[in-house]
Amino acid sequence: MTLLTSLARALAAERGRAQPIRAVRHVHISDRPLVFVPLQLAGEANAPLAAMLGDDRDAPHLLVVYEPRDRAQRFAWAADVAEIVLKYIEGYASPEPAGDEPFADAPQLLVPNPGGIRFAGLLGRSTRFRRTDGEYAVPDNVPRVGRWLTFYSERIMPSASALALCLTDVLADHWATGQSAAEDGNLAAQLAWIDPPPGLTGAAAARLAEDPVGCPPAGPVTDPGFDNEMLADRIAAVRSAAALGEDAPYRARVAMARALETQLAPTWELMWRAVGLLRALPPGAHVATRWERDRRAFTAHVRWLRDGGAPQPRRDGPVSAARRLTALESELDLLAAQRAYDDPLVMAEYRMTGEAFAGTVTAAEPDRVDDSGRRKVLRPLVTVATRDRVLIDPGPQQTSLTSPSRPKQSARLACVRPVGDGVTEVTLELKGGMGRGLTAPAGSVPAVGEAVAYTTLKVEFRRPPEFPPPERTPWTHGGPPDEPAGASDPDPDEAAREAWS
Fold first, then answer.
1. Shortest CA distance to 380 belongs to which of 424, 423, 441, 425?
2. DSSP state letters, 182-215
3. What are the CA-CA distances from residue 413 to residues 351, 410, 456 (Å)?
4. Which of 445, 327, 456 is nearest to 399 (CA)?
5. What is the pairing mode between strands 164-166 and 109-111?
6. pLDDT tens digits for range 192-246
7. Nearest 10 degrees: CA dihedral of 35, 36, 37, 40?
8. For every residue of 450-473, which 3-state class applies, written as one string?
9. In sequence order, which residues have a C-beta less than 8 Å from that of residue 216 and are 6 or more positions away?
């Protein structure tokens, strides 16, 4: 948590309403996202109980496992989930784009909280290797949806991706509430601070939202009170009705479904309410660029599946793990720079740590030429007056600086001079972004009176290092694999076996 976020939390507690900590929205929100609200049986690892999902706020699908400990019913439920999810995904997977172009759009998965994406990941892991023939066969769509759920659960790891979003995390990144970060994990309480009902403060609305009767938990674990007072009886009634025959099982299942709907419907409405709040924020300038990368990732996975590619392995090999970690680090560095360039409130956090400063241009030499080398080069000077602390040392070996308003132009600190009254004058030598001539085009050099910011953050592509092929894995990382990298386990039943199986 940064100092500015801490201040915003204090202001939220004082004013009774969440405070915005971002000037723009830093994630893409689809026009038609797939909202997925899962519930699982308490005390059971990834034992699905029910789910409410769909891409239409007014037409949610309610799917229930009436006997959560019955593995056959679990996979029948997974097949019902697959029917909805795959139909949604396939709606984005045509027509086939030409050449290296990505699909025009990509499907987006929204879950209430991190527990929801963990549930989706475990469900994908337990289904993507299942047999579709022979003993214990499952419907054809179950392993297919398992591969897609694995894909989405893995895409949430690089926070630059918006293919799968946990809404509590996204909301916490854009608003500071007057409660703790742990309490922000409750979607109802978090939204109560951000958008309280008329006549209530955020704190009062959050207290009401923490009542599990009026606002059930957003899952995937249900409220213990609901489990003891209602769910246990409903499951017992379903079991008893199965022995009676006729209409008894149907009536018992209807009663159980209605009970679970009371736990899911409030979160369903909260999800769409959160989507509306996020859509109201203007998107940052780099959001479209990151979404294009997501579309390319989606396109690559569609083509991999259509070409008969193997399911994702249970564990990455050493080389693929190193590649994934390197890509993740690169994406996070790029995301940090893009967010700062897009959002003055994010840039303010870097100004406080000394990684950036902002001020007003007080002097400029746009046509200054450096003739100390073998040929003359254009090197304008600008002087910026700032009240920020400038912790970057001047000199020829320093890290170059960049201004968000001119990202293709680099700057070097030539002089830092305090002038009194908390003001510091910074003289910068500029390079690049001015053409090849010895005269700077109009607008390419900051003019006197212009407000500017400079930072050490760079929005640039970083080439990944070279990795050895999997068959040449060093002995320090386990040596060469026993089988070709990426090959699936020859026994799907063994590959699908988990600690909870």
1. 441
2. TGGGSHHHHHHHHSPPTT--HHHHHHHHT-TTTS
3. 16, 10, 11
4. 456
5. parallel
6. 999 999 999 999 999 999 999 889 999 899 999 999 999 999 999 998 887 776 6
7. 180
8. CEEEEECCCCCCCCCCCCCCHHHC
9. 222, 223, 226, 262, 263, 264, 266, 267
**In DSSP terms, which residues pair with 410 in a beta bridge?**
402, 431
Length of the chain: 501
Is the sign of the CA dihedral 195, 201, 202, 204 positive or negative? negative
**Pairs from 190-193 (Cβ < 8 Å, separation ≥ 24):** 191/270, 191/273, 191/274, 191/277, 193/12, 193/17, 193/18
d(CA 156, CA 457) in angstroms, rounded, equals: 24
- What DSSP state is assigned to residue 35? E
Question: How far lies 482's CA from each of 77, 289, 385, 479, in Å?
Answer: 36, 40, 63, 9
Q: What is the pLDDT of residue 490?
A: 44
- Does domain 341-455 match CATH 2.40.30? yes
Q: Reduced to 3 states, what is the DSSP secondary structure of residue 176? A: strand
> Residues spanned by CATH 2.40.30 within the chain?
341-455
pLDDT at 26 over 80: yes
Environment class of residue 161 by beta-carbon count within 10 Å: exposed (0-12), middle (13-18) or buried (19+)? buried
| Maximum pairwise Cα distance, the chain | 97
Query: Where are the strands (E) in 389-461, listed by range?
Result: 401-403, 406-420, 423-431, 451-455
Instruction: Work out the angle at residue 159's Cα, subtended by the Cα atoms of residues 59 and 458, and round it to the nearest 5 degrees.
Output: 140
Q: Report CA-CA distances (Å) from 238 to 61, 79, 225, 261.
A: 21, 21, 20, 16
